[in-house]
User: Which sequence fits this backbone?
């Protein structure tokens, strides 16, 4: 499974970055291979200053070795080795009418005395608009639901809710975005073998472009004002707050001594913190906030 | 002591904000009173879009009530009430040649069954330049040392080192800035009564303007290029990383349900995250990094 999933994410990285370069039409992804002292490494692919993408990363990491102590405590395990690999992507479009998207597909194994003792998948994808187009939110969630329904009719409801719970900026009492799917610790069970989980997550990975390309094509050339751009940069501040205060993926990267520049590729290119900025009543900006305060059932 | 220190910081807030408005010559501080549901509140004073200060906050908070659980665990205390008050300031100048400054002066009490069981002071001040002028670093540290030496000849060495240790961006293996002073849990002991500590911290508070005004006056009108500004905004990203990943003051604010907009006033106005940005060899930007990698003895 390790090799199977590993080669799946390698292919997916190529497919997604090729598609993004085509959409962008100007910038190309810059590749960086990196090694982790304790074992493993990754391949970071970054696009910057494009026509469409102001900044984006589609990163693969494959790390292994002794399970870092802080994680061992969390998982209540002693003297254990681990292997983890995943693809993680964040795309920050230039146009404030186009949403930021994040996706992650990951696989984890633990071993004791060279024997596999546990294995699970995790991941998901979610959308962070700066201006809300209901049509886009519905499209994104429909793709998520269609994938889920092909594997288990309860998945969409469960993982949509987990996504709303996870991407919650508790200190602001608002969601980071309009959600999508989030799942973790997907272990073999009576209904799903580890290969069934692989089929589910790879189906989702292969559907990522369907979910996002339609939206970015609709929004990438819309006109916008400096005020729209300012609003985008302020909202990107919330993105930073979530990733540095709450995101477990970021903390996992830091705890496992991952490559900082690869971990922080998720951080938006230009960000503003304006004191006590409040959108006007009934404005489009306020409508977004209202939706983020109480997550919506999109499909 | 509660009332004495409380009224000291009220006066200091006025003195510092008056001085900053004079230096700025354009923007005025905006005042916001806020209340904390669980007890207490604060007075936030914010300056934005000035001639000199792009953003700054000089905030007072006075909060009390039941000690929040997470803190009770940390301090190994059960069923305890607390009172905390302090002045916290951050000034982010527009000119990249001028450094950001941070200072904090705070007092803490805990009670059990209405009886005072513990009391301490904490605080300090530190400087974060984007371009290094040794003269400025030396001046700032000299003021710090002079204050310390008036109270105990060991203070400067001890608290300078604590500052270097505290404002350490461990994930980057570099200091946030060029340091200053940091102290905490300053309790009455054989050498220092609680009033001696008050005299020390109020001396430092009263010296803040001496330490910073000289520097900002020297740098506020220096010419700079768009590249200098970009570098400042990238370095401000490190400031955000420290405050959201490592700073205990920020976490204390969040844990005690402080006012978000007051806590986050420390976050810089405009910030950039550029992938894998590395200054040129022997550039002024690289010289700064070199100093941040291994803190220097300035006086």
Assistant:
């Amino acid at each position: 499974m390790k090799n199977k999933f590993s080669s799946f994410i390698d292919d997916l990285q190529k497919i997604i970055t090729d598609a993004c370069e085509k959409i962008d039409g100007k910038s190309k992804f810059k590749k960086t291979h990196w090694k982790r002292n304790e074992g493993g490494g990754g391949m970071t692919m970054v696009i910057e200053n494009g026509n469409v993408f102001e900044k984006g990363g589609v990163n693969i990491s494959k790390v292994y070795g002794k399970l870092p102590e802080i994680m061992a405590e969390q998982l209540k395990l002693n003297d254990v080795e681990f292997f983890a690999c995943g693809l993680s992507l964040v795309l920050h479009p230039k146009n404030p009418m186009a949403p930021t998207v994040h996706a992650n597909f990951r696989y984890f194994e633990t071993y004791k005395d060279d024997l596999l003792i546990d294995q699970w998948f995790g991941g998901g994808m979610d959308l962070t608009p700066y201006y809300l187009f209901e049509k886009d939110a519905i499209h994104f969630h429909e793709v998520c639901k269609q994938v889920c329904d092909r594997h288990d009719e309860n998945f969409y409801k469960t993982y949509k809710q987990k996504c709303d719970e996870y991407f919650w900026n508790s200190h602001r009492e608002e969601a980071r975005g309009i959600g999508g799917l989030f799942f973790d610790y997907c272990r073999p069970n009576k209904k799903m073998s580890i290969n069934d989980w692989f089929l589910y997550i790879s189906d989702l990975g292969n559907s990522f472009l369907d979910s996002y390309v339609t939206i970015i094509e609709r929004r990438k050339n819309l006109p916008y004002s400096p005020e729209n751009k300012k609003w985008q940069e302020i909202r990107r501040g919330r993105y930073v707050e979530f990733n540095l205060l709450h995101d477990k993926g970021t903390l996992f990267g830091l705890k496992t001594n991952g490559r900082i520049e690869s971990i922080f590729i998720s951080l938006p290119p230009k960000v503003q913190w304006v004191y006590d900025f409040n959108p006007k009543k009934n404005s489009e900006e306020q409508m977004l906030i209202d939706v983020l305060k109480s997550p919506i059932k999109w499909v």
